[in-house]
Design brief:
By secondary structure, this protein is α+β, with helices and mostly antiparallel strands. The chain has 5 helices and 3 strands; from the N terminus they run ααββααβα. Strands 1-2-3 form a 3-stranded mixed sheet. Helix 1 crosses helix 4. The mean pLDDT is 87.
Length: 121
């Protein structure tokens, strides 16, 4: 399968999952403000790794909620996307947003320190 096709499937999967998570009734998922950051499907389309970040709630509990809703999510993705095989999902907490915010805070602190030093002269 061409690599560009897999890329399109990854993008469509990410978009549909983002919409679909609003419909999950598990309180661990519905109250956590989840963002799907990426979806990667294997070349044979049997497995998909879904990266998520959550603004509220414990990421471990959110992952448990997503794992318990795998059947519903897989059925809805099969209904919405016309694929020969619907992949089995593995959910992974993505820490890149937290890491980016931490780096941004460090840079901001450095900039404040340099402005403070300029004022001392």
């Amino acid at each position: 399968m061409a690599n560009y096709r897999r890329g399109r499937i990854n993008d469509e999967m990410q978009k549909e999952l983002a919409v679909l998570l609003r419909e999950v009734k598990d309180p661990r998922v519905s109250g956590a403000l989840i963002s799907i950051t990426a979806a990667e499907v294997t070349p044979d389309l049997k497995f998909a790794t879904v990266y998520f970040s959550s603004l509220m709630g414990d990421p471990g509990e959110v992952k448990k909620g997503l794992d318990s809703a795998k059947g519903f999510i897989r059925r809805e993705i099969a209904r919405r996307l016309n694929l020969r095989q619907t992949p089995e999902f593995t959910f992974v907490h993505d820490r890149s947003i937290e890491h980016g915010a931490h780096i941004s805070k460090i840079i901001e602190d450095i900039n404040k320190g340099s402005k403070k030093d300029e004022g001392d002269d």
